[in-house]
Specification:
The protein has 340 residues and is of the alpha/beta class. It has 13 helices and twelve strands. Helix 5 links the parallel strand 1 and strand 2. It is elongated, with a radius of gyration of 24 Å.
Length: 340
């Protein structure tokens, strides 16, 4: 394998000049020299040692995609279609801008801080935070630029991108109310007290009910950490209930799919026997039968906003720019809701 010294000799420049080209410090090198050095690099398929670069310089060109392990209930952290689409969109943007993405799964803040330091991470994006306390500590203690997706704290400067979760819960419930439903349940993957995203969607649900003079039935609040399998458990519970709702709002498509699968397996006819509204507009919502009415959020735009904030923070060497975007949501009407 060719070395920096050999590249420099062939190009007739110093090793430092080659290093500047590799590190994209083009201000110190003429365009003609940059082109010459890059042609030699491509000729020999030279690949720089990233670990060595991170030790010598301030930049490793690595963006960490942080994924909390407490969210996963399977062997894979990317089993959830929403998470997979979000991580895939982020990775595409990272590569497009000349960086390298590294997936970092973690349970404790200390694991992330050690990871960031050891690898000289340029910046991090936290995907789907689920524990409020750990997320807050990470925002406080991180020493590199960080963007949090799906969470905003008002008591600390931070960079974040969210969607209008309250509106999402509201329009999902309002859609059912407008079609004659008055007995509406609410299903979510986790406890409302542990996630502002779930809580905000629930607040929207309550707001819509209140507009129609309705009180929520506590028996129709279904909290389960198991996602799709949790949805199947909720479906099984619904099948055994005498006083059951006519419709359910789910805070994610994946859980809603589990509910639909279980009830169809039990011999129910959907949406005649139960109407279901999901959240995310992920691929499973289009593939399941009946095709699912759901709340649409633009996952690719969310990834783009988050990555652009991170680039700005890296450029300004400021881990707390305090940038915030809240994206809109909308309804996608398919076949999983009946009119009473």
């Amino acid at each position: 394998m060719i070395t920096l010294k050999e590249i420099a000799a062939e190009a007739g420049v110093s090793v430092m000049t080659v290093s500047n080209v590799i590190h994209k410090n083009y201000a110190r090198v003429s365009p003609a020299t940059v082109e010459k050095v890059q042609s030699i690099i491509e000729k020999y398929h030279y690949v720089p040692n990233m670990a060595a670069r991170s030790l010598v310089g301030k930049s490793s060109s690595i963006i960490a995609l942080l994924l909390p392990m407490w969210y996963a209930d399977t062997d894979s952290l990317l089993f959830n279609p929403y998470v997979g689409m979000l991580v895939g969109s982020l990775d595409m943007l990272v590569r497009k801008h000349g960086y390298y993405s590294m997936l970092c799964s973690f349970r404790e803040v200390e694991q992330v801080l050690s990871f960031q330091g050891n690898w000289q991470i340029d910046g991090s994006i936290l995907v789907l935070p689920h524990r409020e306390d750990i997320t807050h500590r990470l925002v406080e203690q991180t020493q590199t630029p960080l963007v949090v997706i799906d969470r905003r704290f008002d008591d600390i400067a931070m960079n974040s991108v969210t969607v209008d979760d309250q509106k999402g819960g509201y329009i999902a419930t309002k859609h059912l109310l407008e079609r004659g439903h008055r007995r509406i349940g609410f299903a979510c993957p986790g406890y409302l007290t542990m996630s502002s995203v779930l809580n905000d969607r629930h607040i929207g649900y309550l707001k819509a009910l209140k507009e129609y003079g309705l009180e929520p039935n506590p028996r129709w609040l279904f909290e389960n950490y198991q996602q799709q399998e949790g949805g199947r458990q909720i479906g099984a519970a619904l099948a055994q209930m005498d006083d059951r709702p006519t419709a359910v709002v789910s805070t994610e498509d994946y859980m809603a799919c589990g509910i639909i699968q279980q009830l169809i397996q039990a011999g129910w006819s959907l949406p005649r026997d139960l109407s279901v509204v999901g959240f995310d507009d992920s691929m499973p919502s289009q593939l399941i039968t009946p095709a699912m009415t759901t709340v649409h959020q633009d996952v690719r735009l969310k990834a783009e906003k988050a990555f652009n904030i991170l680039l700005e923070a890296i450029k300004n060497d400021d881990r707390r720019l305090n940038r915030f975007y809240q994206l809109d949501v909308s309804m996608v009407l398919r076949d999983s809701v009946a009119t009473l």
